[in-house]
């Protein structure tokens, strides 16, 4: 994946892939070989207090290997792809100014696409329109609103999952406030950073193995105290299910359990299913990208392949 009009600066290295494929572990191993600092590309890790469910690196790990774009905002705040792009470019400049090497690590594809492909000039959000759409979704379900989106903006609906509440809401909000299709506005973009990007994507060939790993991973998160973490957020009193932070996979389902919507075992089952759906969407997005190198995270030689690739990117023979 290459951005046009790139400068003579070296490529920016990106390690991505679906959730649960060990991206952080690979990155930490790479930090033993290269003087890198990690720039998180994760829409949940930007929020303070979302630690276990976002697989946020521990304070000890971050002390050993510097991480950027972690714990940026409170969960009561929104954090957009535009903010990510600005913060990411600042982090890259800061890291390189100190003679270090930035490595972007994470699986939030919206952020990656915004960084590489640019961001459309979209209108400000409308709390009134969002509240109305949330109320309609609570009554009809997000698939029904997705069907409405398919009428007003077929191109947007074609690439948005019927249960992707945040993106459905944003597309309908843009149409309601401007009369324009978000798909048309998004085509009017320019790269945010005039650099080449070297992208390595961890794509497992064995889908069943990934599903088993995701189930085990969520079980480990529960054992580590994820329910207690969500309960703490729930008891704060200044959050609700409508906040983007609480819509994160895992948090959304456990929040609904705490609100009395369904028992804990149902919440766990739904969270695991949502995690699998997320991984599927991430892999679909990655397979649509060009000029990226894909490696199987379950192949013992994958780390060697990543390391050898980065030798060239980072200018080491």
Describe this structure in words.
This protein is of the alpha/beta class and 317 residues long. It has two domains: 12-120 and 195-313, P-loop containing nucleotide triphosphate hydrolases (Rossmann fold, 3-Layer(aba) Sandwich); 127-181, Histone, subunit A (Orthogonal Bundle), CATH 1.10.20.140. Helix content is 52%, strand content 8%. It has a six-stranded parallel beta sheet with strand order 3-2-4-1-5-6, sandwiched between helices. The longest helix has 25 residues, at 264-288.
Looking at the structure, the CATH topology of the largest domain is Rossmann fold
Provide the spatial order of strands within the biggest beta sheet.
3-2-4-1-5-6
- CATH class type of the largest domain: Alpha Beta
Shape: globular
Structural class: alpha/beta
What is the topology?
Layout: E1 12-16, H1 23-30, E2 36-40, H2 59-64, E3 67-68, H3 81-97, E4 101-105, H4 109-117, H5 127-140, H6 142-152, H7 154-159, H8 165-178, H9 182-187, E5 197-202, H10 207-223, H11 226-236, H12 251-258, H13 264-288, E6 293-295, H14 302-313
Parallel strand pairs: 1-4, 1-5, 2-3, 2-4, 5-6
Helix pairs in contact: 3-4, 5-6, 5-8, 6-8, 10-13, 11-12, 12-13
Summarize the structure.
The chain is an alpha/beta fold. It is 52% helix and 8% strand.
């Amino acid at each position: 994946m290459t951005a046009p009009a790139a400068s003579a600066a070296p490529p920016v290295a990106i390690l991505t892939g679906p959730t649960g494929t060990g991206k952080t572990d690979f990155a930490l191993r790479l930090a033993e070989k290269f003087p890198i600092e990690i720039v998180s590309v994760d829409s949940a890790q930007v929020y303070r207090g979302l630690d276990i469910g976002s697989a946020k690196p521990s304070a000890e790990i971050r002390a050993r290997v510097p991480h950027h774009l972690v714990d940026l905002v409170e969960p009561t705040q929104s954090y957009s792809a535009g903010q990510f792009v600005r913060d990411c470019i600042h982090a890259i400049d800061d890291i390189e100014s100190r003679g270090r090497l930035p490595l972007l690590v994470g699986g939030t594809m919206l952020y990656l696409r915004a960084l590489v492909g640019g961001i459309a000039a979209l209108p400000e959000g409308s709390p009134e329109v969002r509240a109305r759409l949330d109320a309609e979704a609570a009554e009809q379900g997000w698939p029904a609103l997705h069907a409405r989106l398919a009428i007003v903006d077929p191109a947007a609906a074609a690439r948005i999952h019927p249960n992707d509440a945040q993106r459905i809401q944003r597309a309908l909000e843009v149409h309601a406030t401007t009369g324009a299709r978000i798909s048309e506005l998004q085509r009017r973009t320019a790269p945010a950073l005039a650099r080449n990007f070297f992208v390595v994507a961890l794509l497992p060939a064995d889908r069943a193995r990934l599903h088993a790993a995701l189930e085990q991973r969520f079980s480990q998160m529960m054992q580590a105290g994820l329910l207690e973490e969500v309960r703490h957020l729930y008891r704060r009193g200044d959050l609700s299910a409508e906040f983007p932070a609480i819509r994160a996979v895992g948090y959304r389902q456990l929040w609904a359990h705490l609100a009395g919507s369904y028992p804990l075992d149902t919440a766990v089952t739904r969270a695991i299913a949502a995690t699998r759906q997320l991984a599927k969407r991430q892999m679909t997005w990655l397979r649509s990208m060009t000029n990226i190198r894909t490696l199987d995270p379950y192949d013992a030689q994958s780390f060697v392949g990543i390391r050898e690739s980065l030798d060239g990117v980072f200018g080491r023979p």
